[in-house]
Design goal:
By secondary structure, the protein is of the alpha/beta class. It contains 8 helices and 10 strands. The strands form 2 sheets. An 8-stranded mixed beta sheet has the order 8-9-7-6-3-4-5-10. Strands 1-2 form a two-stranded antiparallel ribbon. α2 links the parallel β3 and β4. The structure holds S-adenosylmethionine (SAM).
Amino acid sequence: MGCSAWHPAGFRYETYYQDVWVRGEAIIKGGRECELRFWAIYEALKETKKPLKVLDIGANMGYFSLRLSEKLPGTYVMIEGQESTAQALLKVCKLNNNPSIVLFKRKLCLQDLKDLRAVEKFDVVMALSIVHHFEEPYQKVFETLMTLGHKLVFEPPIAEEHTLNQERIVNEPLDLSRVKKKLLIKVPTGSRYAGNMLRPTYLIDCISDASYATVQGVSQGTFRLMNGVYPPL
Ligand SMILES: C[S@@+](CC[C@H](N)C(=O)[O-])C[C@H]1O[C@@H](n2cnc3c(N)ncnc32)[C@H](O)[C@@H]1O
């Protein structure tokens, strides 16, 4: 580990999609732009009067949940499904020691989203560059995401971008025409991944029912159901 390819905290440089965020600073730069997206999302959520309950699907290194939770109180439930990324994220959680953070290590399928909807309610669902990772029809996944919380922060895959499931992205274009959405920002997808192609981040109004009330924390039942790994029970 004494090698210069490694950060002293045990993270390999030039490895991660997102910046690695530890207690107020990015200790490693990721391949994907994070900072501008963070500020756009923060600006959209900052007027919230009460603690937020946020679901971060495909959290990667937890950058958005960790950073948002330092500014906006609440419960931030991160889900990461890729084994080595989830292991690295668990390490990031321990280093941050942030009581707002919950981590589920789980490769989600559409049914998992429905199971989660049956047991937890969210103020904000973040689904950034994740829909095209699902095996089920993208439109169904998107529509289910819209039933999980009051608002959805959503970043669709871009057809021109040569990324995972490129063919499906082209053949299964998402129809967002009927949703009420606000463009928060458009930023390049990132140098190592897709050059300077711009990808939009939207804020979408979902559940407007005032009786849909969120509760802070997650139940032990949900934690077990979704393979919770942080905080330790
Ligand atoms: C393209 S990255 C996007 C990361 C982050 N949302 C962002 O925009 O910065 C997708 C992330 O989702 C994770 N992932 C992919 N499929 C998943 C699934 N079915 N369930 C949970 N996580 C998944 C990947 O391991 C990766 O960390």
